[in-house]
Amino acid sequence: MKYLILSDIHSNREALGTILSFVKRKPWNKAVFLGDLVGYGANPNQTVEMIRKMRPLAAIRGNHDKVCSGLEEGELFNRMALEAAMWTRRKLTAPNLKWLRALPEGPMVVDGHFAICHGTPLDEDAYIFGELEALNVFRHTDFPVCFFGHSHFPVIFALSPDSITTILTVAPSFRFKLRPGVRYLINPGSIGQPRDGNPLASFAFYNSDSKVVTIHRVPYRVEQAQTKILEAGLPRPLADRLALGR
Ligand SMILES: [Fe+2]
After folding, report:
1. Distance of CA 57 to the CA centre of its chain
2. Distance (Å) from CA 13 to ligand 1 centroid
3. Ligand 1 center–CA 152 separation, angstroms
4. At the N or C end, where does the chain have fewer CB atoms within 10 A?
């Protein structure tokens, strides 16, 4: 099975549309979404509808999906994130709001092949930034392969019997074959708001037969997404950061 792994879309229709066109030439069997479909960007309904249409789909919620759909009030959000979340809540149609509220909490095991979560399998709101957090997750879970999002940073953590390794992806298309006896935590990066200093939209494929992960970076019309954010009256830094990848 070839899985299309998508995360942290954040209402960025331009980025998601570009990725969906890009993968038309690369057949896949199932879409997998790691949460944060909305929040920050200017097209929440359009992005929800684009993902809702994908079949087959395995999807979980992210922290922004909870606040934007009213499941939580965002006490821990910074001012800009909260402002964008409340704007998003007002804009979402009733059916899209209902669909978002029904997204399950991770972790979820997909077809017996791998697990998915938003932040970590232990806490959907927690972050895995580096090896210490990754090691803590490895110690308290037993998934051989788990895809995660939330940090908006494409990275692979590999736990072998004697060490933990960080694999950073720098190429526009990075190919990595998983090895037997090694456990993995894999972040495909963010489609709608990359934060690794590279503004290109990021996503992954995973082939569960060949055990190969590929992480792709794709340029999209950043200026158009920025213009929409400003026209919607959302905070300017939310537009500025898209061009910086931060
Ligand atoms: Fe996010």
Report:
1. 14
2. 15
3. 6
4. N
pLDDT at 170 over 90: no
Could you check whether the bond before residue 107 is cis, i.e. omega within 30 degrees of 0? yes
Number of neighbours of residue 87 by Cβ within 10 angstroms: 20
Q: Is residue 169's pLDDT more than 90? A: no
Contact indicator for 241, 194 with CB cutoff of 8 Å = no
Torsion of CA 137, 213, 174, 221, to 10 degrees: -90
Q: Cα(194) to centroid of ligand 1, in Å?
A: 9
**Nearest CA-CA partner of 148 in 112, 189, 111:** 189
Asked if residues 133 and 155 have their Cβ atoms less than 8 Å apart, the reply is: no
**Pair of tokens at residue 237:** 């830094």
Query: Residue 180 Cα, ligand 1 centroid: separation in angstroms?
Result: 31
Q: What is the DSSP letter of 245?
A: T
Q: How far is the CA of 162 from the centre of ligand 1 (A)?
A: 32
